[in-house]
Design a protein that fits this description.
It is a single chain. Helices cover about 50% and strands about 10% of the residues. The chain has about 400 residues and is an alpha+beta fold. It has a five-stranded antiparallel sheet with strand order 1-6-5-4-2, with helices on both faces. A two-stranded antiparallel ribbon has the order 3-7. The chain contains 15 helices and seven strands. The longest helix is centred in the first third of the chain and has 22 residues. The chain folds into two domains: about 250 residues, no CATH class; about 120 residues, no CATH class.
Length: about 400
């Protein structure tokens, strides 16, 4: 399941060495205790919970709303647990920038080092698919630059990804968990509340099942026929003096809007959605036609099929199959334990307390100094009060 998404301001700068060392040692100690007390699966559940993860970062000494919390906390955990991975049975790969692109290689390297019996190739594909969903199928204007995968000996895994939007100066974090996950391309989000923005095309929304099926069907049809439709749409845009990047069919999605009372967070996306040139799409259609996918996930995983190609296929699918896409933005502010005014569901304070008690137990039993314990517990108490206060 995809357990949630968090929006945080995009901050520059760097973490000072003394703070990183503290976060590395304290974070590793806390995770080790959680493994001993609750097992590796509980660590994965906690990391996939955006509220718990944010609280964890604050306990380690980071600002509540800083985008740097994601990358630095993950980096600190990876370094702090480097030598304890084999003993704990918990493995951490990936990271920010170049490190994110090394994730598939690190999975194999880790498996060889610790003699893992996991299906490592499946984990590699999972890493690629999760990244492809949030970078290509969810077209929200955020470019992924951080990909962090944690898995255990039984093949359970969690992923924390983050993307940035340089225009609105916000970062957006995506949490994934394999537990109960059955389909990467069908409404994988959970516990999300907010508002829908018409410029966001979420091709993995449950409401866009028709668009996904039609897009796969198109891949089995002759590229020349699809090209005719696509060229006609591009020509229409040119004659009506629309911007080449703008897909006119998606200007006015017809769907029920949430009332103002239900809106928890509003985002404004740029109107541009780049689509490929007709020549590029022609080439890509022929490549796909030679080996057509049977499912949308196979199409999504195809090399060279990115957001622009998926968007163009969705546009053609509406014309040829009448599959009108809906715009259901998954990146609405996430509360894993419910939201204000009972939307999308009431806050379960017992769940909040359980999540934070896991962290409290780890702090109290961790191999850290008394001063650090007291400071961490104070921060955690403040976090709990903030969560409850914001959701009354």
């Amino acid at each position: 399941m995809k357990t949630g998404i968090a929006n945080v301001p995009l901050h520059g700068g760097y973490c000072p060495p003394w703070l990183f060392k503290k976060m590395r040692d304290l974070g590793a100690s806390i995770i080790e205790v959680i493994v001993m007390e609750y097992g590796t699966t509980e660590v994965l559940r906690r990391l996939s919970d955006p509220v718990w993860f944010q609280s964890f970062g604050s306990v380690l000494g980071f600002d509540w709303h800083s985008s740097g919390l994601t990358t630095v906390v993950c980096g600190a955990l990876k370094e702090g647990l480097r030598e304890a991975q084999g003993e704990l049975g918990l493995f951490l790969v990936g990271g920010k920038g170049k490190a994110s692109r090394k994730t598939p290689f690190e999975i194999i390297e880790t498996g060889d080092k610790y003699g893992l019996s996991n299906d490592l190739s499946a984990l590699q594909q999972t890493s690629r698919t999760v990244a492809k969903v949030d970078s290509a199928a969810v077209q929200d204007g955020y470019q992924l630059y951080h990909h962090f995968l944690v898995f255990d000996r039984d093949g359970n895994w969690a992923v924390i990804q983050q993307g940035m939007n340089s225009k609105n100066r916000y970062a957006r974090r995506y949490h994934w968990l394999n537990e109960d996950l059955t389909d990467f391309t069908r409404d994988p989000h959970k516990a999300v509340c907010g508002t829908t923005e018409k410029q966001v095309l979420n091709l993995v929304s449950d409401k866009n099942e028709a668009t996904r099926l039609a897009s796969v069907e198109i891949c089995h049809e002759k590229p020349e026929e699809i090209g005719k439709v696509y060229h006609a749409i591009v020509e229409h845009n040119r004659k009506t003096k629309q911007e080449p990047e703008q897909l006119s069919l998606f200007d006015e999605p017809k769907e029920v809007r949430l009332s103002s009372e239900q809106v928890r967070s509003i985002i404004t996306m740029p109107p541009e959605h780049p689509i490929p040139s007709p020549r590029y799409l022609d080439k890509k259609l022929y490549e796909i036609y030679d080996h057509p996918p049977e499912t949308y996930q196979q199409l999504l995983e195809r090399k060279g099929v990115g957001p622009s190609t998926l968007r163009a296929l969705a546009m053609v699918a509406e014309i040829t199959h009448g599959a009108q896409p809906t715009f259901h933005d998954p990146v609405r502010y996430a509360f894993a334990h419910g939201g204000k005014d009972n939307f999308p569901f009431p806050v379960e304070r017992d769940d909040v307390d359980h999540s934070l008690s896991v962290l409290r137990t780890a702090i109290e039993k961790g191999k850290i100094g008394e001063k650090d314990k007291l400071e961490s517990l104070r921060r955690l108490a403040n976090q709990r009060e903030r969560i409850i206060r914001n959701n009354r």
